[in-house]
Design a protein that fits this description.
By secondary structure, the chain is α/β, with parallel strands linked by helices. It is 34% helix and 21% strand. The chain has two domains: 150 residues, 3-Layer(aba) Sandwich (Creatine Amidinohydrolase, Chain A, domain 1), CATH 3.40.350; 229 residues, Creatinase/methionine aminopeptidase superfamily (Creatine Amidinohydrolase). A hairpin with a 5-residue loop joins strand 2 and strand 3. The mean pLDDT is 96.
């Protein structure tokens, strides 16, 4: 393994999104869990968890990186050698180690684990970033080290946001609103989906957004009835529905927003669906307060949708948690969902995106959403943009 290289002292932590005390508090909370579980250390490989714990962010996370969070002391970060400068600029601690192109990062990681004297290592087995092949190589390289399942330990702490995280999310929501307003303004007969997407993205970025963890969703006409479709040069025509959704980011914290547009007058069924989506969102928001299970807002929206006869047009969760995100997903849906059977109680500081969409599959989608912060008394939507369908 390469030696730790000397880096100008002024660089250390200079690009960190929060002060070191924010990250130290997170590390201390995680260490409480480690000690309770009897682990010497926790191995983090997911970019969101590494960022949350260490402040490390890069577009180069396609190359293997890992954070070792010990039960006592400061973390140790392993990155590709090319990423060292950025890692040192992000991290609040000094322990940055590297592996070089041509080396096996699994072997470099194992050497680092053994050098730390770790005998019981918890591993994120539910993480999406490490391939089965890489995990097999890591397990082989760590022969003799007892491996525990540390899945979900970090996510449990990420669910409730700190005041600094909430401030970043509020800024991201403002960027998203700017992007959505520009996209709605760009919708007219003869306009291209690409023109709308360009207006949306440009406005969000000009307002302050950094890289988005997933591309915005812009689709029109029959394509709007396809979930997660996005722009493909189609020209809008009279009678088209237009589906718009994006998430903008501030310091990797994402806030999402969804709105609907119709070119001309929507058919009666589409308007009924839109009215139902609006009432469903209102019902879900009214049900959100501390102590209520995550299932309750979903069931409130579902009751409205079922009563209107649109059960088959929904069939999904009412919302998912939001926070720090890296591609391919702008949400934290793997942490918490607003859905039937999720009994985790809501707490002040949790953040959710509630996209209430109703679809006539292959014909159109209408919907509306808000990103909201759970407060001491209810839910605080982060957008002031009108929710009703916009007629153009």
């Amino acid at each position: 393994m390469n030696q730790i290289l000397q880096t100008p002292a002024a660089l250390a932590g200079s690009a960190a999104v929060f002060p070191a005390e924010e990250f130290r508090a997170r590390a201390a909370a995680l260490q409480v869990r480690l000690r309770a579980e009897g682990a010497d250390a926790l191995l983090l490989t997911g970019p969101e968890n590494i960022f949350w714990t260490a402040g490390r962010q890069t577009a180069g996370y396609f190359a293997f990186q890992a954070l070792i969070m010990p039960a006592e002391g400061e973390p140790v970060l392993l990155v590709r050698q090319l990423e060292e400068t950025g890692a040192r600029a992000d991290a609040w601690f000094d322990g940055v180690h590297t592996w070089q192109d041509g080396q096996d990062p699994a072997a470099a990681l194992a050497a680092l684990v053994r050098a730390q004297g770790i005998e019981r290592l918890a591993v994120e087995r539910s993480g999406w970033f490490v391939s089965p092949d890489m995990m097999g190589r890591i397990e082989t390289a760590l022969s003799g080290v007892s491996l525990l399942d540390g899945s979900g330990w970090t996510e449990a702490l990420r669910a409730v946001k700190s005041p600094r995280e909430l401030a970043a999310l509020r800024l991201a929501a403002g960027y998203a609103e700017a992007g959505m307003a520009a996209a709605i303004e760009a919708c007219r007969a003869g306009a291209s989906e690409n023109t709308i997407a360009a207006a949306m993205t440009a406005a969000a970025i000009e307002a302050g957004s950094e890289a988005m963890a997933m591309e915005p969703l812009v689709s029109s006409g029959p394509r709007s009835g396809i979930p997660h479709a996005t722009w493909r040069r189609r020209l809008l025509e009279e009678g088209d529905g237009v589906f718009l959704e994006l998430a903008a980011s501030h310091d990797r914290y994402h806030a999402a927003l969804m709105r609907s547009v119709w070119i001309g007058t929507p058919p009666e069924t589409a308007q009924q669906m839109m009215d139902t989506a609006l009432r469903g969102l209102d019902a879900a928001l009214a049900a959100m307060r501390p102590g209520v299970a995550c299932s309750v807002p979903h069931e409130a929206a579902q009751q409205v949708i079922d009563a209107a006869g649109f059960t088959a047009a929904f069939r999904k969760r009412a919302g998912y948690s939001m926070g720090a995100a890296f591609a391919p997903d702008w949400g934290e849906g793997a942490i918490l969902s607003l859905f039937t059977g999720v009994e985790t109680p809501l707490e002040p500081g949790m953040v959710f995106h509630l996209p209430i969409t109703l679809r006539d599959y292959g014909r159109f989608t209408v919907g509306v959403s808000e990103t909201v912060i759970v407060t001491e008394t209810g839910a605080e939507p982060l957008s002031s943009l009108p929710r009703q369908i916009t007629l153009r």
